[in-house]
Design brief:
- This protein has one domain.
- A hairpin with a 4-residue loop joins strand 2 and strand 3.
- It is an alpha+beta fold and 109 residues long.
């Protein structure tokens, strides 16, 4: 009888440890995924900012109201993010990566 109780407690403790380990692993995986998304967004935003500050971009800094990064509901990385430059006159200019190697950004509208 005492041996049965020990084996039940052992199984219960191992099951609880397995559940805790699974939860911790999922948390770590989501954390890593979130950090990669932040890195991808910041990389595109930095490239677009360099493009906008270029003299031939055609965008006057005074005309810009807001710059945001938009994530598409579909698409493959790195093309699932766009940068939207909203002008004060209501126009919106979109930028995205030109190719998979992220060599340059291009205006897509």
């Amino acid at each position: 009888m005492l041996k049965e109780k020990k084996s039940k407690w052992t199984i219960l403790i191992l099951a609880a440890a397995l559940v805790c380990l699974s939860i911790f692993s999922m948390y770590q995986m989501l954390q890593n995924y979130s950090q990669q998304e932040v890195h991808d967004r910041e990389e595109l935003l930095a490239a677009v900012m360099w493009e906008i500050t270029n003299e031939d971009s055609g965008l006057a800094k005074e005309a810009i109201d807001e710059i945001t990064v938009i994530k598409a509901k579909a698409g493959i990385p790195p093309f699932n993010y766009d940068v939207a430059v909203n002008k004060k006159n209501g126009e919106q200019v979109l930028y995205s990566w030109k190719d998979e190697e992220k060599s340059a950004v291009q205006r897509i509208n």
